[in-house]
Amino acid sequence: LKLQFLYFIDMLPLANMPRKVKVLAIVVLIWLVRYLKRRAREKAKHKLLLKGALKKRVERDERRKQFNFKFELIPDGLTIINMTVHELLDAMEKRTLTSEQIVTAYSARALQAGLELDCNAEEMYLEAIEEARKCDEERNAGTLRGPLHGIPISVKDQYHMEGLVSTCGLACRATTKLTYTSVLVKALRDQGAIPFVRSNVPQALMLPESFNAIWGTAKNPYNVARTPGGSSGGEGALIACGASPLGLGTDIGGSIRIPAGFCGVVGFKPTAQRVSSHGVGVPRPGDSSGQNAVFGNAGPLARSVDDVELVMRLWCTPAVWSADPAMAPMPWDAPAAMPRKSMTFGVLFYDGFFKPAPSYTRALNLVVEGLKKEGHEVKPITFDLSRHAELYLGLMGAEGGMQGFVDGLEGEELHENYSFVHMVASLPSAVRSVLQLFSSRREKRLLEAGKTKTTYEFWEWIKMRDNLRTSYMQYLKEEGIEAVLCPGVGLPALNHGASSKLSMSCSYTFLWNNFHFPAGSVPVTHVQDTETTYPVTYKDNLDTAAASDLKNATGLPINVQVVSLPYRDETCIAAMKVVERVARQHWTPPTFKPSTSRL
Predict the structure, then answer these.
(1) DSSP secondary structure, 126-163, as one string
(2) Within 10 A of 8 (CB to CB), how many other CB atoms are there?
(3) Average pLDDT, the chain
(4) Tens of pLDDT along 503-545?
(5) What is the spatial distance between Cα 291 and Cα 260, in angstroms, rounded to a whole number?
(6) Helix or strand or coil: residue 194?
(7) Which of 23, 253, 349, 448 has the most CB atoms at less than 10 Å from its CB?
(8) Is pLDDT of 311 > 70?
(9) Which phi and psi angles does 596 have, rounded to 5°?
C-alpha cells in the first residue's frame, strides 16, 4: 500500500517537485477539501435555522392581523398606560376601570411598540383579553385570584410558557413549543396576573443589547438609534414606553439593571438563588449549564419600587417552595422592606476599572444631597474593588473561545455583535502575550483574565473572587453600611452595535452578580448637554469607544444602583424606596405620546 501511495504521488502532475513537497501539497489539499465540506454543512445548517426563525416571525406577524385595536382609539388609553400597577389595582377596586379595559389598552400599545421598536417576541393579546373578561366576571362575583388580579404582565423570551417557544434568542429554538410553564410565571398567574406579550432578547443572552435572527433588533424608545439594553432589553423598552406595567426579566451580569438604566425604569435583581430558576431557559444544549460560579437570577421590572416589591412578595411563598424544592423557604419580610427615617448608605463613585459618564456622578451627588437632607448618613466607599471586573470576566469565560455559547447555537452562526468578544476569547496564548506588550494596564488585565483556564486555575480564580467578596462584606459590616449607591451602568444607552467593544462598561452591574448581592436600579435624571464628553482615564480602546458612544447622548435616562448584602433583599428594597423618593424632584417621567419611539 505504501508503494502504491508513493507511486500515485509520483504520477501527480506537480511538475518536478520533490516527493516531500508533493505529499505536503496533498495533505493541504485534503485538509482544504474537508474544511470546505464542513463549512458547506455549517452554512446549510445555519440557513435552515434562519428559515425556521423567519417562519416563526411571519407566524407572529400574521397573528397581528387578528388584533384590530388601534391604541389611539382606545378610550382613556394614555391615562391607563401612565398608571403604576398599584394605581391600576386601585382603579379596578373602585370600579373606575376593568381588567378588560386595562389589558386592551396595554395590548394595543404593545402591538404599536412591537411595530415601531421591535421589542416584542410572541404576542398573546386576544387570549389575554379573554382572560381579562374572566377576571372581571370573578371580581363582580366577589372572587379574586390574588393581589395581581386582572393585571397584564410582559415576560422575557427566556421564561418557559406552555404552548409557546422560549428562544433565548436562538434560532434553533424558534419552532419548539414548550409543554410546561415556569414556576415563577405560574406563581403570578395563580395570583391573577395575565401574560400578554413576550419580550425580545439578544442571541444567547450575553450582551447589553437585544438582537436575534427571530425577532430582530430592539430599539430604545428615547432614541431609536440606541439600544434598550440586554438581555432583558425588550422588557425595558416595553415598560419605558407604556406598553407594559410590569415585566419579568433575568440577570447574570446586569440583564435587568442595564435595560432599567438605559430605559429609565425600575429593575431589581434578588440575591442569588433567592427565587426559583425552574423553567427559566438556559442558552446551552439541553437547556442547562454547568456554570455555577456566577448565578443568573429572575427579577421584575416596573415603573415603581412598590410594584417590583409586590412581585418579590408573591415569589417568596409556600406555593413556589412547593413547586421547586430546591428553594429555601424564606418568606418575604414586608416590615423590613419599609423605608426608614434613618439609614446608613455608602456611595461608590468609581469602581477603579471604568470611569462612569459625568451624568452618573451628578446623579449620585443629587441622591446623596437628598439623603442627607432627610437625615440619612452617607459614607464614601474607600474599599479597593479595581480587580472585580477581570475576576467576573475570568470566571464567565473560563472555558475559552466562548465554547458554551457556540455550543448553544447548535449550528447558527454567532451574531456579528459578538465578533470582537469571540475573537479576544479565542486568541492563542502566544498572540495574547504579544498583545499585552502593546496594551494599557487595564487591557493587559482583561487579556490575562480571558485566557482558557485549567480546573486548578479556575478554582484559584473562584478563590480570589471569594476572598474579595468576603473582605468587602466585612468592610460594609464594620462601617455599618446598609445599602451602597453606585452608577446604574458606566454609560447611558449605547448605540446599536457598540456593545461589541463596550460590554465592559457594564462593570458596575457585573460586580453585584459576581458577589451574589441583591441590587436594584432607580431612575434619577437625564443626560445634560454638557455631559457628553467622556472622562478618558486609560487612553486605550475602551476609553476611545466610550468617548465616541457618549456623543449625542443628551436626554437619555440615568439610573442609580442600590445594593445590599446577600439575603438583605428587603433592606435593598427599603433603600430603593428612599432613593426613589429623593430622586422625584430630579426625575421627569416620560410624557407618553401616540408614538412609542419618541419619548
Answers:
(1) HHHHHHHHHHHHHHHTT---STTTT-EEEEETTB--TT
(2) 11
(3) 95
(4) 999 999 999 999 999 999 999 999 999 999 999 999 999 999 9
(5) 26
(6) strand
(7) 253
(8) yes
(9) -90, -10
